[in-house]
Amino acid sequence: MPEPTDNPRLRQVEAIPAKVEDREVICLRDPSGLTDSVLTVPRALAPILALFDGLRSLVDVQREIMRECGELVLRSQLESMVEVLDQHLFLEGPRVEAERARQRAAFLAAPTRPAFLAGRSYEADQESLAETLATYFERPGAPGPIGPPRDIVMRGLVAPHIDFTRGGAGYAWAYRALAEARDADCFIVLGTSHQGLDGHHFAATRKAFETPFGPLEVDHEILEAIVRRSPEDLFAAELAHRGEHSIEFQAVWLEYLRHRTGGGARRIVPLLTSFVHECLARGESPAAEADVGAVLDAVSDAMATIPRRYCIVAGSDLAHVGPRFGDGWRAGRTQLARVQSEDRALLAPVSAGDAEGFFQEALRQGDRNRICGLSPIYSLLRLLPRAEGTLLHYEQWPDPDGAVTFASVAFEQMGPPR
């Protein structure tokens, strides 16, 4: 593999505009968790970072900066930038490949999937976390405390995957509805793979998900039945589970409810998903993607042949807009009103259980709002065809630099008497 200094290529990392001591900077962080480093770069250097695309040499970068800005950047300055980026694992190259291999081996050898974000995004201490999650039911816009059981079956649930601090009310709406329904014992948990799946559509893992409330075990009978029927190797991209939060956050809430209500044992089938954005790029429905349909059919067949009390959970956020996500405008009132209108247009076919209508609306919008829950929501709708859902909650986290929206939707049906 070429050295990073030959044709430096910046990895897929987040570039977050910020102010540090009145200086305009870009904070680089790695959402995949390959590195915990956060680098602060003067915003004036952002054009140089954009040229680290793996196609240009340092000489090419110098020429481009001279052509665009009329300034000469010394090669020694570029080499210093490259060295710092490489040391902190922000550039593709031998150092990153070695670290990927090390982490892959450690993850695959581990008996469970560690609670990757415990102590980072939420408390690692069980008692402290329970107290925090309980407050989300009472915050403004939240549903209030969990009520008495209702004679309904929760067939499916769309829940946020934003961090708990910002999305607490949305989680409370989703998981209060689940807590009040008849208890399920197997959850097919569909998550967004934010880093993609290296050309695969789905990724499973056999590892139990550790949480501060104890491990959430995998239903191996169901998972193996799906694996036998699947045309895809569902473990080819298993490493994507290591740092991905979209399923981890659902596991925390599922175990919290068990801890709080004293319910019976629960198991999950964890499946990361990544295919709808690729279909949008081609302008072709996922219904025409044979492998996607075959994997979802494998899930349906396993559910149909192995008796369980199933609930399908899609860990999904909606829009991501503003400078942090690549827009040239800040997310003010006018922009957020437009986003809300388009979000609700997207949620209408979700509530109708219409997978194809959901995709066509996303296609009509051109994904200009960067909906990051497309694949898990589409998968849920395909697994629950024409099931009617109820929109429980819609919310916007209105950060002008990076607004995120999310919703909670419940797919319920009347159940037999308790």
SSE layout and pairing:
Layout: E1 14-20, E2 23-29, E3 38-42, H1 46-51, H2 58-69, H3 75-87, H4 94-109, E4 112-113, H5 126-135, E5 152-159, H6 164-180, E6 186-192, E7 202-204, E8 208-209, E9 217-218, H7 220-229, H8 245-261, E10 267-273, H9 276-282, H10 290-305, E11 310-315, E12 320-321, H11 333-351, H12 355-365, H13 374-383, E13 390-397, E14 403-414
Parallel strand pairs: 4-8, 5-11, 6-10, 6-11, 9-10
Antiparallel strand pairs: 1-2, 2-3, 5-14, 7-10, 12-14, 13-14
Helix pairs in contact: 6-8, 7-10, 11-12, 12-13
Describe this structure in words.
It is built from 13 helices and 14 strands. Helix 6 crosses helix 8, helix 7 (220-229) crosses helix 10 (290-305) and helix 11 (333-351) runs antiparallel to helix 12 (355-365). A hairpin with an 8-residue loop joins strand 2 (23-29) and strand 3. 42% of the residues are buried. Strands 5, 6, 7, 9, 10, 11, 12, 13 and 14 form a nine-stranded mixed β-sheet that branches. A three-stranded antiparallel β-sheet has the order 1-2-3, with no helix packed on it. Strands 4-8 form a two-stranded parallel ribbon. Helices cover 39% and strands 19% of the residues. It has 418 residues and is α/β, with parallel strands linked by helices. The model has no long low-confidence stretch (mean pLDDT 93).
